[in-house]
Amino acid sequence: MKILVCIKQVPDMESRFKVNGAGTWYEESDLAWRINEYDEFAVEQAVQLKEQLGDADLTVLSIGPARVKESLKKALAMGADRAVQLVDDRAYDKDPFQIASAIAAFAKQQEFDFIFTGMQSQDRGSGQVGVLVGELLGIPALTTAVGFEYAEGTVTLRRELEGGQRAVVKAKAPLLVSCQLGLNTPRYPTLPNIMKAKKKELLEIPLAKLLTTAARLTTLKLAYPEKKGSAQILEGDIGELVDKVIGILKEKTAVL
Amino acid sequence: MKALLVGEYRDGKLLNSTYELIGFARQQGIDFELFLVGSHAQLPEVDAKIYLADVATAKEYNPALHKQLILTAAQKSGADTLVLLHSSYGWDLAPRLALALEAAQISEVVEVTADGYLLPACNAKLRRTVKAATAQTVITLQAGAFMAADPAGSPEVEELAVSGTGNTEFVGYEQAEAGDVDLAKADVIVSAGRGIGKPENIPMIEALAKALGGEYGASRPVVDAGWAPHDRQVGTTGQVVSPKLYVACGISGAIQHLAGMKKSEFILAINTDKDAPIGEVADVLVVADVKQFAPALTAKLGG
């Protein structure tokens, strides 16, 4: 059995973002990068499935510049067997359709039985790439997984709906699953596994070799929202802040 | 411009969110028709044409089949824009529709401007303006971003024949186990976010909630990490609440959390990041480490 997990490297969301010169994306310098949170659940589920199957081979794929190797290495240390980097220094310029097309072009040659993705990225949040890859490959794409079981060729999935409800759905492999937060508990790589990961294969393929489609979406602008909220900002000494807050709560609410 | 609005139906009922789609189309002044996998007994109240596929045969979840039905309706209506909610139903279907139509998909629209569609980026810290480079467009609307239309009128129904099976089997629904607390009834909710640092700090939040005469809640990451039970989760996938006072402790303000608490009467946020999106809905934002501020406030309140 062959498994693919697709990950994106994103900045830490607590970062202070600076809009770039073109005004269309954020400045990439001075940011701490990590695996997109949703994708960590995807990696964990892929590794758990590999452990269940025994003889499976797990590939982790990411698109981007040299820095994404760090995230690929983390996924290798979590248990992936090999890594593929679709190298592109301007991946942020590509729209979800182009990213999905490139992944599908790669996956088509490999005939994976299972593909895992996060349900969305933390920076762009489109939630499109996973479904598009499944559709481009002509396999079932199940989204928003908070529960995953595999037995005898069939996946039983719990999809998270709104208001605490879940839908139970089934589909047969080959298939694609997009993972929601809370699907599992992503493992921390152990030191021996980090050392082992250094020896695993990391293949580089120029993205241009796989990308034959044009963008369907153009980003015109990225900006901080106009401050719609009128939050009163309080800063300073904790003791004074506490007194101020109690004063405000007494004045503005009926709870004190 | 002509839109086809894809309504939502679950557990035998038309979902109210369908009226947000109608509200959006009216606000934008676009001609529209609707599509629904549903039943005659649960039609949206609106004076518009609706393409109806029978849920008894199409089932409530069957993306391959629903996609084909929506494409048929889109063709009949001549719509250039397909509008869905950015929900577990909408974000699942929209990319499939966009691919089939060779159309751009624009996810989680919060506003339409003269330049294009406005979307959240980087956990809602930033806004991105995008434009489609294609003739047709599939868009999903952020839940709650557009005012729902009032139900009024009666639709003209055209039934669509359902054929085919799809590649996914819908088994049924499960409800998250009910807990011992109903946050919707609390006058004061003090919620813990990732900013509390570790599960051992939950009692600190609980103590502040008690001192204020309320219940404690939690953000999704805190519940996912197992620091608090699911019945404490505030947000679209947990409980939607509107207490007299909501205190957000170390919660940055992910969209799905904001949607679950922004209607609270008074919102106090404690966060080390002055730019955190929680500031958009808060009345007061205290820039401080909640691990210092919360115990100090509790002590002063005599808790």
Question: How would you describe this structure to a colleague?
Answer:
The complex is a heterodimer of chains A (256) and B (303). Chain A is of the alpha/beta class. Chain A has a single domain (2-210), classed as HUPs (Rossmann fold, 3-Layer(aba) Sandwich), CATH 3.40.50. Chain A has seven helices and 13 strands. In chain A, the strands form two sheets. A nine-stranded mixed beta sheet of chain A has the order 9-8-7-10-6-1-4-5-11, with helices on both faces. A two-stranded antiparallel sheet of chain A has the order 2-3. In chain A, a hairpin with a 4-residue loop joins strand 8 (154-160) and strand 9. The mean pLDDT of chain A is 95. Chain B is of the alpha/beta class. Chain B has two domains: 2-160, HUPs (Rossmann fold); 183-300, Rossmann fold, CATH 3.40.50.1220. Chain B has eight helices and 18 strands. Chain B has helices spanning 18-28, 55-58, 63-77, 90-101, 202-211, 220-224, 255-261, 290-300; strands at 2-6, 9-10, 13-14, 31-38, 49-54, 81-85, 104-109, 111-112, 117-121, 126-132, 137-141, 156-160, 169-175, 188-192, 215-218, 245-249, 266-271, 284-287. In chain B, strand 2 and strand 3 (13-14) form a beta hairpin. In chain B, helix 3 (63-77) packs across helix 4 (90-101). The longest helix of chain B has 15 residues, at 63-77. Chain B is elongated, with a radius of gyration of 22 Å. The termini of chain B are far apart. The model of chain B has no long low-confidence stretch (mean pLDDT 94). At the A-B interface, helix 4, strand 7, strand 8, strand 9 and strand 12 of A face helix 4, strand 7, strand 9, strand 10 and strand 13 of B.
